[in-house]
């Protein structure tokens, strides 16, 4: 792979019973990016579905987009497998994941930092041996009342949220392309700007 290739991985759990869960919003964004690029994800020997696409303003930047086939807490193996196969370093790896600490509908970008109790991130940090990879944090908000966070992330989005979900997925996909095109600082200024 050339030095300018990126790896973009969306986290979730495999199987139709999890497809609409809040925990799978990262994987939803990868499906959306594939659709935008007119690409079909294919099974890769790293234990993921993946495809090479061009993201951003044409001609676009080459990126491998993928979804691990493993359960969330084992996301590190397939992610590291793709990174190794395509020779992409952690600093050019973008991980899309659900984030309880961000209100539903908002997207935030960051490099490195803690995992905030997110088992998918913990697994990736462990497999990479570093926390210094890029994250697109997709806000799902906090569980209502006394609901356990683990139960909340494994529930489907509410009917109200489902109306807004396409916009959130689209915003997160835009954030990925912006991050690749303009770098973290510039992308943060756009993505984190207050809405009019």
UniProtKB/TrEMBL annotation:
Site (Discriminates between blocked and unblocked aminoacyl-tRNA): 13
Ranges in coiled-coil conformation: none
This protein's GO CC annotations: cytoplasm
Protein source organism: Janibacter limosus
Protein name: Peptidyl-tRNA hydrolase
Role according to the record: Catalyzes the release of premature peptidyl moieties from peptidyl-tRNA molecules trapped in stalled 50S ribosomal subunits, and thus maintains levels of free tRNAs and 50S ribosomes. Hydrolyzes ribosome-free peptidyl-tRNAs (with 1 or more amino acids incorporated), which drop off the ribosome during protein synthesis, or as a result of ribosome stalling.
Sequence similarity: Belongs to the PTH family.
Gene this chain is encoded by: pth
Lineage of source species: Bacteria, Bacillati, Actinomycetota, Actinomycetes, Micrococcales
Quaternary assembly: Monomer.
Major localisation: cytoplasm
Gene3D superfamilies (alphabetical): Peptidyl-tRNA hydrolase (3.40.50.1470)
């Amino acid at each position: 792979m050339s030095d300018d290739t990126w790896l973009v991985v969306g986290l979730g759990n495999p199987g139709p019973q999890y497809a609409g869960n809040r925990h799978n919003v990262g994987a939803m964004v990868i499906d959306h990016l594939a659709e935008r690029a007119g690409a079909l994800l294919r099974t890769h020997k790293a234990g993921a579905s993946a495809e090479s696409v061009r993201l951003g303003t044409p001609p676009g930047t080459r990126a491998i987009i993928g979804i691990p086939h493993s359960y969330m807490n084992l996301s590190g193996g397939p992610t590291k497998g793709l990174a190794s196969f395509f020779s992409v370093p952690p600093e050019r790896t973008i991980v899309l994941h659900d984030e309880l600490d961000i209100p539903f509908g908002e997207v935030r970008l960051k490099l490195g930092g803690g995992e905030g109790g997110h088992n998918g991130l913990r697994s990736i940090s462990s497999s990479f041996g570093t926390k210094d990879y890029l994250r697109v944090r997709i806000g799902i908000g906090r569980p209502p009342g006394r609901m356990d966070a683990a139960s909340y992330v494994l529930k489907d989005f509410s009917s109200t949220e489902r109306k807004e979900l396409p916009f959130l997925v689209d915003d997160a996909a835009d954030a990925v392309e912006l991050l690749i095109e303009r770098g973290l600082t510039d992308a943060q200024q756009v993505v984190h700007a207050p809405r009019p």
